[in-house]
Amino acid sequence: MKILKVLENVQLVIADIEVSMGNKKQNAPTLCAKYEGKVIPLNSAHDGRPILMKIENAIEEGS
Q1: Would the pLDDT of 54 be above 80?
Q2: DSSP letter string over 28-39?
Q3: Could you tell me which of 63, 36, 8 has the C-alpha nearest to residue 54?
Q4: Average pLDDT, the chain
Q5: Backbone phi and psi for residue 7, each to the nearest 5 degrees, phi listed first
Q6: Which residue would you say has higher pLDDT here, 47 or 40?
């Protein structure tokens, strides 16, 4: 494993994220990175498993 680049202007935040699980909704505090105006979860809100910081996983703030 090696570091290719250290990203600038990234904030670590804890966001209360809501997810749908079938017909139920569930929320949990979730560790996220705030980058380029988007919030990117770093672990899943429903069971806490780590996920990759990918822009495809980003959530628009206020959504």
Answers
A1: no
A2: EEEEEEEETTEE
A3: 36
A4: 83
A5: -75, 140
A6: 40
Question: Within the chain, what is the greatest distance between any pair of CA atoms?
Answer: 42
Q: Which residues contact 49 (CB under 8 A, 6 or more apart)?
A: 43
Q: Residue 11's closest CA among 32, 26, 42?
A: 32
β-sheet bridge partners, residue 28: 17
Supply 47's token pair.
């069971």
Residue 15 confidence (pLDDT) above 70: yes
The tokens of 52 are what? Answer: 């990759």
How, if at all, do strands 38-41 and 24-35 pair? antiparallel
